[in-house]
Fold this sequence. Notes:
Blueprint: E1 7-20, E2 24-38, E3 43-47, H1 54-61, E4 69-74, E5 77-78, H2 85-93, E6 94-97, H3 101-104, H4 111-121, H5 128-138, H6 155-168, E7 173-177, H7 185-202, E8 205-209, H8 213-219, E9 222-227, E10 230-236, H9 237-242, H10 247-254, E11 258-259, E12 262-263
Parallel strand pairs: 3-8, 3-9, 6-7, 7-8
Antiparallel strand pairs: 1-2, 1-4, 4-5, 9-10, 11-12
Helix pairs in contact: 4-5, 4-6, 5-6
Amino acid sequence: MQECELIQVKNLSKTFTVPGGFTQRSYIEAVKDVTFSLQPGETVAIIGESASGKSTVGKIILGLVKPSSGEVIYRGQPIHSLKGNGMRAYRKAVQAVFQDPHSSLNPKMRIEDIIIEPLRNFGYRGDCRRRLSYLLEVVGLSGEFAARFPHQCSGGQKQRVAIARALAAEPEAIVLDEPLSALDMTIQTQIIALLKSLQAEHGISYLLITHDLRAVKAMADRVVVMYKGRVVEKAGKEEFFRCPAHPHSRALLEAIPVIGGLQQCKVII
């Protein structure tokens, strides 16, 4: 229902200007009139082929990119109108976990400082060391990881650190932008299980931006399909996998390899 929506994306569009020599410019419409919502405690998956605009939508929601038109509304208030403490509260409430955990973690900082930094930035008043230990435990890492640097961790361990850092702010929602693509299949399964467990325990909402239909099937409540910057289908997960309505959606599902008569729900699109 309208009053329960955590985040609303309304008629969102984004055009990028591309230099074209000394006098000419070209324009790329990366996102065109995109509308959807995210409810408390649910997972909405945005899927689409490369350059469909899905990551741009995520960056706009995070406030990293300014839209050309349309708006993102958080608990009834457009985020472009938020300033000072209002914007600070929004950044605390909506966190991110990005595709490559190696590049998203400061290589010069120890894991303890990476996780404690948001605690200090958002004015955490408790014992930061105790909170650090709790967050490491929550994501399945032992206390010894606190003293490590990112290069001393595996890809899966670094992604767990990135999740712990996002959780440190006690967010209401996390934008997961291709959080599994840099990981092997076994680690992907572990991270999916971790994210689902955290959602069940803390009621976090996820915006899952992904090309991995296995993750969509495991995590999503609803699916938003993007094609050439536009939303071409919105559906519940079961409906989407059972009977996709748009030709592009059907093409995505048909691209899933079939082995031994069973579809393997991982596809790069």
